[in-house]
Amino acid sequence: MRKWLSLGLALVAVVLVAAAVRFFVITPERIDRGQNKVQRVAVDITPAAQALQATLDVADMHADSLLWKRDLIVRSDRGHIDLPRLIEGHYALQVFSSVTKSPKGQNYDANGADTDTITNLAIIDLQPPRTWFSLLQRSLWHAEKLHGFAEQSGGRLRVITTPSDIDRLLADRKSGATVVGGMLSIEGLQNIEGNIGNLDVLYAAGFRMAGLAHFFDNDVAGSMHGVAKGGLTPLGRQVVQRMEAKGMIVDLAHASHATVAEVLAMATRPVVSSHGGVQATCKVNRNLTDDEVRGVARTGGVVGIGFWQGAVCSLDPRNVARAIAHVRDLVGIDHVGLGSDFDGSTTTGFDASEIAAVTQALLSSGFSEDDIRKIMGGNVLRVLRAGIAAKG
Ligand SMILES: [Zn+2]
Fold first, then answer.
1. Distance 272 CA to ligand 1 centre (A)
2. Measured in angstroms, how far is the CA atom of residue 48 from the centroid of ligand 1?
3. What is the pLDDT of residue 125?
4. How many domains does the structure of the chain reveal?
5. How do residues 22-63 score in pLDDT, each as one tens digit?
């Protein structure tokens, strides 16, 4: 009798372990696939666009690829970005963001700070337990992931932290090397956990850009999608000054109108809006007003145009070109670039390997080759290079 009982228990244990293994392997993949989709928009890439693409140094200011359990060194059939797809798209640099907290039922209108879906993800993905309940540790883990991918890449992925890193990257690419730069950014400074000293910890881990708030108001700044949507807090003002002193670029994406106005009023260095659209071509609350676009340009900064519905009101790359044309008409060609939000729980019309769709849309809209070179990477590389220099 006892023998049968222990055999039965052993069988139950085996079934449970098998179910757990299945759960922790399959579920992260299913979540990634469900959150980051491509609904392909048919685009004919002309030989002229293809030839131009092959000479570009593409640079993009925002992707959330580090949030998911995906090996970015090998080509994947899910999501939008991995190293092979960046290489195929002729990318010189991709900014990889760290998302640390997302409210349940996340929306553009109003979210409180009392719920979080990233905690579940951290556990299901079997991230190190130190990341389960610390937002700072989640960002440090994302930084470790990018550094780890770079180490495994055989020199094809390089983490960028200084202006001379950018110079060397571009020089190496010019002499024929296959190499892509990755720069770390932060989506919402709730991850400093109220302690400005943690900004130094994040800088030391390689972070060189940060958005002040993400989908909810935090102790640094008001979010466009928060409840109060206020401006900078006293801590937030200190944070902006400290970022400028260190050479960390201030990102206005997701900030409330009050926060945008207050940052623009105090900025002494170029600021960016890393990913989004403009109200003039897509009237969604998260997109920039004409005044805000002028404000970013006045700092010498750049506006990154996104590829998803909320940014350009379509998945069609021609709508990306329309938003870019608007920024050009408003403030000139030097202040507009790419901010895809690839892998940011978005659906897009193409992935990183198919970024020539945007080049094609720009060519078809009458942009010159020189202007396309600036839009597809030149402007972003110029602003990042200036923004990460230590203050002289
Ligand atoms: Zn975002």
1. 13
2. 33
3. 87
4. 1
5. 888 899 989 999 899 999 998 999 999 999 999 999 999 999
The number of beta carbons lying within 10 Å of the beta carbon of residue 156 is: 17
pLDDT tens-place string over residues 165-196: 999 999 999 999 999 999 999 999 999 999 99
SS (H, E, C) 300-365: CCEEEECCCHHHHCCCCHHHHHHHHHHHHHHHCHHHEEECCCECCCCEECCCHHHCHHHHHHHHHC
The C-alpha angle 160, 193, 249, rounded to 5 degrees, equals: 30
Backbone angles phi, psi at 113, to 5 degrees: -105, 5
Report the separation in Å between the CA atom of 222 and the middle of ligand 1, taken as the mean of its atom positions.
15
* pLDDT tens string 57-92: 999 999 999 999 999 999 999 999 999 999 999 999
Q: What's the domain range around 290?
A: 36-387
- Sequence length of the chain is 392
Ligand 1 centroid distance, CA of 46 (Å): 32
Ligand 1 centre to CA of 341 (Å) is 7
**Token pair for residue 383?**
């602003």
Residues of the chain by 3-state class (helix, strand, coil), percent to 5: 50, 15, 40
Cα distance between residue 11 and residue 48, in whole Å:
64
5: in domain: no
User: Residue for token digits 């130190």?
Assistant: 130
Residue 41 lies in a domain: yes
Query: What is the CA(60)–ligand 1 centre distance, in A?
Result: 13
Domain assignment present for 6:
no
CB neighbour list of residue 4: distance below 8 Å, 6 or more residues apart:
none
pTM: 0.95
Residue 150's CATH number: 3.20.20.140
Q: Give me ligand 1 centre to Cα 2, in Å.
A: 58
**Quick check: is 28 in a domain?**
no
Distance 304 CA to ligand 1 centre (A): 11
